Amino acid sequence: MLKSQKKLNFNCLNDYVLETLNTLNLERLDDSFNNLPADPYIAENYRFRRLSSFNIVNNQLVKLPHSPLFQSKKYNPLVGDVVRDYAELEQNLVELPDFQTIVREFFEFCQLCSDVNQIKANEISVHQIRTVANPQEVGYPAPEGIHRDGVTLVGIFSVSRHKIEGAATSLYKSKDQDPVFNKILNPGEFVIFSDRQLFHFTSVIKATTAEVGTRDVFVLTYPGLRPPKDWVQA
C-alpha cells in the first residue's frame, strides 16, 4: 500500500516530487562510491560510474542479468547511438537495507506510472555516479545539457556532497522556459519526476578547497535503457 500523501497525489503524466529519506545511513552508502571505475565514455576524467538493473518481486530486489546502456542521439547528443557497457553495482552495496529502501521507494512511484502507461513496472535501472572537481577543473553532472533520458520516470537521490559548490538540479517543461524546479539536492533528498513531460539538467560542480571535491548520487530510471534487439553499432 502506498503510504505517503505525496504518492497518493502524484500525477505520473506531468508531475515531480521532492522527498527526504532521513532514516538512511548515508555514510555506509557513500563508502561504496570510492570503488567506482572511471566512465570510459567521457573524455575528461571527472565522472565515475556503475550500473545495474532490478526487478521487484514480493518486495524483494532481484538483480537482472548484465546489460549495457543505450540511448539514441535524440535523447543524448553527446554519446547517443553508442552501446555503453558499465561495471555492475557491487554486491555488498546491493545487499544494504538502505540501498534497497531507495529502490523500493522509487518502485512505488513506478507502480503508479505503470497504470498510466498500461505496462508492468518490472524493471528499474540504478546508475551509481560520482562527479569530481578540483581547483583547476569543474565537473559536469549532465554534460549532455538540458535533456530527457527516454524513459517514463527518473529519480535522483543525493548521497553526499564533499568540498563542492554548485550542482543545482533543474526541471523544465521545455528547454526554452524557466525551470519549474531548481534546487541543490542535499544528502538524503530524492527528486522523482516524469521524464515524458519534463526535461532535466544539473549544473557544474566546483571544488571549494585545494582538494578534490565529489558529488555522489544514484540515478534511477523506469524502465531501463537497453539496446534494441536488432541494434548493430556502426
Write the layout of secondary structure elements.
Blueprint: H1 5-8, E1 16-20, H2 26-31, E2 47-57, E3 60-63, H3 91-94, H4 97-117, E4 124-133, E5 153-162, E6 164-166, E7 168-172, E8 181-184, E9 189-194, E10 199-202, E11 205-207, E12 213-222
Antiparallel strand pairs: 1-9, 2-3, 2-4, 4-12, 5-9, 5-12, 6-11, 7-8, 7-10
Architecture overview:
This protein has 234 residues and is α+β, with helices and mostly antiparallel strands. It has one domain (5-222): q2cbj1_9rhob like domain (Jelly Rolls), CATH 2.60.120.620. It has four helices and twelve strands. The chain has helices at 5-8, 26-31, 91-94, 97-117; strands spanning 16-20, 47-57, 60-63, 124-133, 153-162, 164-166, 168-172, 181-184, 189-194, 199-202, 205-207, 213-222. A seven-stranded antiparallel beta sheet has the order 1-9-5-12-4-2-3. A three-stranded antiparallel beta sheet has the order 8-7-10, with no helix packed on it. A hairpin with an 8-residue loop joins β7 and β8. It is globular, with a radius of gyration of 17 Å. The protein starts with a helix and ends in a 12-residue tail after the last strand. Residues 116-120 have low confidence and may be disordered.
Provide the β-strand percentage band: 25-35%
How many strands, which pairing sense, and closed or not: the largest β-sheet? 7 strands, antiparallel
Which fold does the CATH topology refer to?
A: Jelly Rolls
Q: How many H/I helical runs?
A: 4
* CATH superfamily heading: q2cbj1_9rhob like domain
CATH architecture field: Sandwich
Indicate the overall shape.
globular
Give the structural class.
Answer: alpha+beta
> Which whole number gives the mean pLDDT?
88
State the share of residues found in helices, binned by percent: 10-25%
Low-confidence stretches: 116-120
- Structural domain tally: 1
The separation of the N and C termini measures 47 Å
CATH class: Mainly Beta
Beta strands, count: 12
Order of strands across the biggest sheet? 1-9-5-12-4-2-3
**SSE order in H/E notation?**
HEHEEHHEEEEEEEEE
